[in-house]
Design goal:
Number of domains: 2
Distance between the termini: 43 Å
Shape: elongated
CATH topology of the largest domain: Rossmann fold
Number of helices: 10
Number of strands: 7
Radius of gyration: 27 Å
CATH class of the largest domain: Alpha Beta
Largest sheet: 7 strands, mixed
Strand content: 15-25%
Structural class: alpha/beta
Length: 230
């Protein structure tokens, strides 16, 4: 893994210690950081809270995001993904700007939330908020680690959970337990299926038409069950 840092970010060099095995400063045409893994890379555009708000009002942010979206390669590295990182605390900054004007604060936050939604939905760019230097270091470290291990490319794990069946469960109930684990098949429908076919193998060998003879199983559900066994 290699971390390329734009020369304008040299002031944050101390925060990048131990973030990556290899760190180099370079003149990046796009973004502030380039996390390189093999031949592919991740662009990170970092903005302080004041720069973020200023760039939104001046429309400079949207030009930068468009350039990031259009960029297929940076310094010869294929771009895998793009991230916008906001560094700093908005509440502290806005309190300094409009501490005695609730309406002004509301306008600032409304503009901020609108910009966030524009970035995510219109410019299709993930946005990360690191409120402090410690948070910034943690983000960069975890980003490098996840890119190195491929965690940012994996498919989501299944999160559903079924209570394990008791070892002494009767055979009929165990069959029902197995069938009820199929998508869209609950306990009652599993009971109807077993009453009709008696065995799991009978269900597995049934045609779509035969499955439709079971009460409450239509064509779509029958096709789904059939496809799971075939």
């Amino acid at each position: 893994m290699k971390l390329l840092v734009d020369h304008r970010e040299r002031l944050l060099a101390d925060l990048l210690q131990d973030v990556c095995e290899e760190i180099e400063f370079a003149q990046l045409p796009i973004g502030d950081y380039l996390v390189v893994s093999d031949s592919k890379a991740v662009i990170v555009e970092r903005k302080t809270v004041s720069d973020f708000l200023t760039s939104v009002r001046s429309n400079r942010l949207w030009d930068q995001l468009l350039r990031m979206m259009k960029a297929e390669r940076v310094l010869g590295h294929e771009i895998r993904r793009r991230i916008l990182l906001v560094h700093g605390n908005f509440q502290e900054y806005l309190m300094e700007v409009d501490s005695r004007d609730p309406e002004g604060m509301l306008k600032h936050w409304a503009q901020l939330m609108g910009a966030y939604l524009e970035i995510v939905y219109v410019y299709n760019t993930p946005i990360i908020h690191a409120e402090s230097d410690v948070a910034f270091t943690a983000f960069m470290r975890i980003l490098v680690r996840r890119e190195a291990s491929g965690q940012n490319d994996k498919l989501p794990d299944a999160r559903w959970y079924r209570k394990p069946a008791r070892a002494a469960l009767p055979v009929k109930d165990r069959k029902k337990y197995i069938l009820s684990a199929l998508p869209y098949i609950g306990d009652q429908l599993a009971e109807n299926i077993l009453a009709h076919f008696e065995t799991i193998s009978g269900v597995a060998c049934a045609s779509v038409e035969e499955l439709q003879t079971v009460p409450k199983i239509g064509k779509k559900k029958a096709e789904l069950i059939h496809s799971l066994f075939h």
